[in-house]
């Protein structure tokens, strides 16, 4: 079941399924490597922005943003 | 033009890469100090150019903004892409980061789909062994069919290899014949269909047809515009139909498929040429973890900022080190440090210069002498005496940036700032502004969206800078007796300043831009590492030079205007400030001081000092002292006969209204719209007045 990144616990891994944001943001995220199928690891998920590891790079995402990214836990 | 080029052997090389890939550093090594900085036409995206003569070839490097791709979905991407397709650059040098090849090879692939004239440069190869990464550059070279050059700008590795390849290209050598053609499998029939339609188009005939077809399927505002304005909108209708067909048959947006396919291709290459071995990173990794944790992160961040700011302040004016020393009875040492702090030394230099001018020119013409000595030297000197502070604040910012601490600060502060219409990135301008507002305004460029950039520019000047701290300290020590009251007064000024910063952000976002959502935070977080001194120096000196050149002219002319105001009156050149236009204006605005119960003979002097403070805030103190015949600032303040409450409200006003000439000049440089700048000045004055008056009335009612 795909879930928003915000609901995945720290340390877990998932595969991106889709991004439900506006066109510009979706583009930006995908060009940073967050394409459907990409593997992500949740580095930090507490009250602040999410930290994820994607394609060898750590990326910080505001929680609003991260909630719009759907991923399938692996 | 092209004839000229071949004669002198000039080759234009565009340098492009992801943000943080090491582009600025490489650019500096390639071109040295001769870089020329300007903005791209019509946008505030910096354009840097530098020339390098190498083996008889004049290589003109053009630095493109840092971008992740060429989809033209942001200002930077538009600028970069338009330049690449303009035909102006002969060759593109595209950078990939050796420490993150999985992500940074995307842009090179996208570029290779557009043109075959590309050299791929890997940056930071010195980091690879530490991180346990190995890349088979030669294998990559044969896969892509273009030169692949490993470099380290900080160690000077591979620079000659790169220059040699550029010279080979200039000599007529071509690396590969045509653009890279990826297999988009399911999309291929659709690309072919659109390519067929495009054959009849004239508007886009300069571009490779397959590329335009792909761009249109992905959705590209620029190219759509191009077709529309050429009256070829029927093509767009056809494209729209094809896109619908894709969505129906594949169930996904075409752009998603294009980007995924490219990344899959990158992935397949990386699997073949990159080997990663686990390496433990030791102390840096532990520090990184601490900075990332929910509680320790913000805590350490605040600690780092606080210590660094104290250090910078102490070097600059001695304060607060001097205060601490005096507290321990070491007044002599405190005095020594204050005199020989950078600010003290520069101040001495300029007053010496002013004296020298008046002595040697006084026989010539008193008017010109005064203009030079009291107008230009004092005005420019007042601003220049902050140069060390500006440089140090830039250095501070550069260290934060280069070490990788900066993005972690942004993360730590994001939650708080997003309640006020900012993203966590606004923490940089907020912090630097505590030192000086000029770099604060310039740091607005780190904002992703234009709205946030303007919010930052409007909010930044409310943060009390170190110059204002000097004024605050002088007034506070003159009017408050107990150290606790003094400390509370100073702290309250900072709180009000920061509150105004935050309120201005949310106000502009919700009222002017009508946006309910705070800006998003999307931020790459590089590994923490020891800052490279060379890089830090480049960044900070670059900014400082920029400030000197751009703001310098505005500062100079405004100094002259203000001198004219203070020394010319209806009767011509006046010695008595009271008779000058400035004095007359001060008298005219004294009624605004009446609600503060500042009335009577000396009221105009207060107005005059505030007027003078427009140049720079220490001018407020200087002019009060001057009007009292050069006695010490503290005595002059006392003799104005202000009550503590009045002094405090005055202090609030002084801190909040328009920071200084230099900041106004910088704001203008960034916004380039005189109306907006005037609106901002008005806003600041009104806000300062309302707050000061409110504070006064409350304190008065409370019987203080
Ligand atoms: N180890 C190493 N670090 C580098 C090198 N070049 C740049 N960097 C670092 O990479 C970061 C980004 O560099 P910068 O030139 O500002 O990147 P830009 O954003 O692409 O302009 C900084 O922290 C630099 O110190 C290099 O050759 N070796
Ligand atoms: Mg840079």
What would the keywords be for this entry?
heterodimer, A: 74 residues, alpha+beta, SH3 type barrels, 2 helices, B: 704 residues, alpha/beta, Rossmann fold, seven-stranded mixed β-sheet, two-stranded antiparallel ribbon, 34 helices, 62% helix, elongated, binds guanosine-5'-diphosphate, binds magnesium ion
Q: What is the name of the CATH class of the domain at 5-170 in chain B?
A: Alpha Beta
Alpha-carbon distance between the two ends of chain A: 10 Å
The major beta sheet of chain A can be summarized as: 6 strands, antiparallel
Uncertain runs of chain A: none
Question: What form of chain A results from the Cα inertia axes?
Answer: globular
Share of helix among residues of chain A? 10-25%
Architecture of chain A in CATH? Roll
The CATH topology of chain A comes to SH3 type barrels
Please give the radius of gyration of chain B in angstroms. Answer: 30 Å
Top CATH class of chain A: Mainly Beta
Beta-strand residue fraction of chain B: 5-15%
The number of strands of chain B is: 12
Q: What's the rounded overall pLDDT mean of chain A?
A: 93
Given the C-alpha coordinates, what overall shape of chain B results? elongated
The tally of beta strands of chain A, per DSSP, is: 6
Spans of chain B of at least 5 consecutive residues whose pLDDT stays below 50 are 1-7
Quaternary organisation of the protein chains: heterodimer
In short:
The complex is a heterodimer of chains A (74) and B (704). Chain A is of the alpha+beta class and 74 residues long.
Structure description:
The complex is a heterodimer of chains A (74) and B (704). The mean pLDDT of chain A is 93. Chain A is 19% helix and 41% strand. Chain A has helices spanning 23-31, 63-67, and strands at residues 3-4, 13-19, 39-44, 50-54, 57-61, 69-73. The longest helix of chain A has 9 residues, at 23-31. Chain A is α+β, with helices and mostly antiparallel strands. The N and C termini of chain A lie close together (10 Å). Chain A has a six-stranded antiparallel beta sheet. Chain A has a single domain (3-73), classed as Roll (SH3 type barrels). In chain A, strand 4 and strand 5 (57-61) form a beta hairpin. Chain B starts with a helix and ends with a helix. Chain B contains 34 helices and twelve strands. In chain B, 62% of the residues lie in helices and 8% in strands. In chain B, 45% of the residues are buried. Chain B is α/β, with parallel strands linked by helices. In chain B, a hairpin with a 2-residue loop joins strand 11 (568-569) and strand 12 (572-573). Among the domains of chain B are: 5-170, P-loop containing nucleotide triphosphate hydrolases (Rossmann fold, 3-Layer(aba) Sandwich), CATH 3.40.50; 185-253, no CATH class. Chains A and B meet through helix 1 and strand 5 of A and helix 4, helix 13, helix 21 and strand 10 of B. The complex binds guanosine-5'-diphosphate (GDP) and magnesium ion. Magnesium ion is lined by residues 23-24 of chain B.
């Amino acid at each position: 079941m795909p879930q928003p990144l915000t609901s995945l616990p720290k340390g877990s891994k998932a595969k991106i399924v889709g991004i439900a944001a506006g066109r510009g943001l979706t583009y930006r995220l995908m060009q940073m490597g967050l394409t459907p199928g990409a593997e992500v690891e949740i580095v930090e998920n507490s009250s602040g922005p999410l930290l994820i590891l994607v394609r060898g790079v750590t990326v910080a995402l505001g929680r609003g943003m991260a909630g719009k990214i759907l991923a399938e836990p692996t | 033009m092209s004839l000229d080029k071949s004669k002198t052997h000039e080759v234009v090389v565009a340098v492009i890469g992801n943000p943080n890939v090491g582009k600025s550093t490489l650019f500096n090594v390639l071109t040295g100090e001769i870089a020329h900085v300007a903005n791209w036409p019509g946008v505030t995206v910096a354009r840097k150019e530098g020339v390098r003569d190498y083996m008889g070839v004049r290589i003109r490097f053009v630095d493109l903004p840092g971008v992740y791709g060429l989809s033209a979905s942001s200002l930077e991407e538009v600028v970069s892409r338009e330049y690449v397709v303009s035909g102006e650059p002969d060759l593109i040098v595209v950078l990939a980061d050796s420490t993150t090849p999985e992500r940074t090879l995307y842009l090179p692939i996208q570029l290779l789909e557009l043109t075959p004239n590309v050299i791929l440069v890997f940056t930071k190869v010195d980091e690879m062994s530490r991180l346990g990464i190995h890349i088979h550059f030669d294998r990559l070279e044969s896969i892509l069919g273009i030169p692949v050059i490993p470099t380290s700008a900080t160690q000077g590795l591979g620079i000659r290899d790169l220059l040699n390849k550029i010279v080979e290209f200039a000599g007529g050598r071509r690396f590969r014949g045509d653009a890279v053609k990826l297999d988009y499998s399911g999309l291929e029939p659709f690309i072919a269909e659109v390519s067929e339609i495009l054959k009849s188009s004239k508007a886009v005939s300069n571009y490779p047809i397959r590329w335009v077809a792909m761009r249109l399927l992905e959705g590209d505002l620029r190219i759509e515009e191009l077709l529309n304005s050429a009256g070829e909108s029927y093509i767009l209708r056809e494209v729209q139909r094809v896109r619908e067909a894709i969505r129906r048959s594949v169930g996904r947006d075409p752009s998603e498929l294009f980007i995924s396919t490219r990344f899959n291709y990158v992935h397949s290459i990386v699997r073949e040429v990159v080997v990663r071995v686990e390496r433990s990173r030791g102390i840096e990794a532990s520090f990184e973890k601490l900075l990332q944790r929910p509680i320790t992160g913000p805590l350490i961040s605040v600690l780092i900022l606080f210590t660094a700011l104290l250090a910078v302040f102490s070097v600059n004016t001695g304060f607060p080190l001097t205060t601490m020393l005096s507290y321990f009875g070491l007044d002599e040492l405190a005095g020594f440090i204050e005199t020989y702090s950078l600010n003290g030394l520069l101040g001495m230099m300029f007053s010496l210069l002013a004296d020298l001018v008046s002595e040697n020119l006084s026989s010539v013409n008193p008017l010109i002498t005064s203009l030079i000595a009291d107008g230009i030297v004092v005005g420019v000197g007042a601003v220049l005496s902050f140069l060390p502070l500006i440089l140090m604040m830039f250095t501070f910012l550069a260290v934060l940036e280069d070490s990788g601490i900066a993005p972690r600060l942004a993360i730590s502060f994001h939650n708080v700032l997003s309640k006020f219409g900012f993203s966590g990135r606004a923490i940089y301008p907020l912090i630097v502004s505590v030192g000086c507002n000029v770099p604060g305004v310039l740091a607005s460029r780190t904002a992703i969206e234009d709205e946030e950039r303007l919010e930052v520019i409007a909010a930044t000047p409310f943060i009390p800078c170190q110059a204002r701290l000097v004024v605050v300290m002088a007034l506070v020590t003159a009017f408050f007796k107990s150290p606790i009251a003094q400390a509370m007064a100073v702290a309250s000024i900072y709180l009000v300043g920061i509150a105004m910063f935050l309120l201005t952000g949310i106000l502009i976002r919700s009222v002017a831009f009508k946006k309910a959502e705070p800006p998003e935070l999307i931020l790459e977080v590089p590994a923490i590492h020891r800052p490279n001194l060379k890089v830090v120096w480049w960044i900070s000196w670059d900014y400082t030079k920029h400030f000197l050149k751009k703001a310098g002219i505005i500062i100079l002319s405004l100094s002259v205007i203000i001198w004219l105001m203070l020394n010319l009156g209806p009767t011509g050149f006046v010695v008595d400030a009271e008779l000058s236009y400035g004095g007359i204006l001060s008298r005219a605005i004294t009624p605004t001081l009446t609600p503060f119960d500042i009335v009577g003979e000396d009221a105009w002097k207060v107005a005059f000092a505030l007027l003078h403070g427009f140049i720079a805030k220490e001018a407020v103190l200087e002019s009060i002292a001057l009007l009292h015949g050069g006695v010490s600032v503290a005595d002059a303040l006392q003799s104005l006969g202000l009550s503590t409450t009045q002094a405090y409200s005055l202090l609030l006003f002084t801190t909040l209204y328009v920071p200084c000439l230099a900041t106004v000049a910088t704001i203008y440089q960034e916004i380039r719209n005189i109306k907006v700048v005037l609106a901002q000045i008005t806003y600041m004055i009104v806000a300062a007045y309302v707050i000061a008056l409110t504070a006064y009335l409350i304190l008065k009612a409370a019987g203080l």
